[in-house]
Amino acid sequence: MSIFTKIIRGEIPCHRVYEDEHVLAFLDIAPLSPGHTLVIPKEEKATLDELSDESAAAIGRVLPRICRAVMQATGATAYNVLQNNGAAAHQAVFHVHFHVIPKTADGRGLGIGWNAGRLDPAAGRELAAKIAAGVTPGR
Ligand code: AMP
Questions:
Q1: Contact 138, 43 (CB under 8 A)
Q2: What's the rounded Cα separation, in Å, for the pair 79 and 88?
Q3: Do residues 27 and 17 make contact, with C-beta atoms less than 8 angstroms apart?
Q4: Which positions ≥6 away from 51 have C-beta within 8 Å?
Q5: Does the CB atom of residue 54 touch ligand 1 within 6 A?
Q6: Residues 55 and 42: beta-carbon distance below 8 Å
Q7: For residue 25, how far is its CA from the centre of ligand 1 (angstroms)?
Q8: pTM value?
Q9: Active site annotation includes 97
């Protein structure tokens, strides 16, 4: 069980901004910028690939609404949605969560290192086919 389960259960306080049967959203305790919000499923899964279709759909339905509300409340006009999976990918809390991170006029928000490569057409064809074959119905 992670700290987010304790927040869902009300055992640890949070600054809640949204809640329904499947989803909870609250302010990040260590914000990258004002309004930095976490959107989590109530389902206890560590990484996004483990999430049920039901929870995924519930999050997908409200995520844009929460983004709109965060932008409206902070006045920010740009933002990032970040979702980390695995310690190597900067995940620290092992309960699925989406960060909504406003970008402020003075540059606060998410810093991104983007070391882009170049997609080889033949390798791309092979890899796309392999991934496509692995997209199976959800849980
Ligand atoms: P990640 O690196 O994607 O796992 O991010 C975890 C996030 O959870 C960090 O941004 C933390 O600041 C945030 N966090 C950890 N504990 C709490 C808490 N009790 N209330 C709100 N946010 C939290």
A1: no
A2: 23
A3: yes
A4: 41, 43, 45, 59, 96, 139
A5: no
A6: yes
A7: 12
A8: 0.97
A9: yes
Cα(24)–Cα(51) distance, integer angstroms: 15
Nearest-angstrom CA–CA distance, 85 and 94: 8
Contact 139, 53 (CB under 8 A): yes
Signed CA dihedral, 75, 80, 82, 88: sign only: negative
Distance 124 CA to ligand 1 centre (A): 35
The tens digit of pLDDT for each residue in 96-117 reads 999 999 999 999 999 999 999 9
- Which residue blocks in the chain are alpha helix, DSSP H? 3-8, 53-74, 121-134
Percentage of residues in the chain having pLDDT higher than 90: 96
CATH class given for the domain over 3-134: alpha beta
Q: Which atom of ligand 1 is nearest to the CA of 28?
A: 22
β-strand pairing of 78-82 with 16-19: unpaired
The domains of the chain are located at 3-134
Q: Tokens for 102?
A: 């406003």
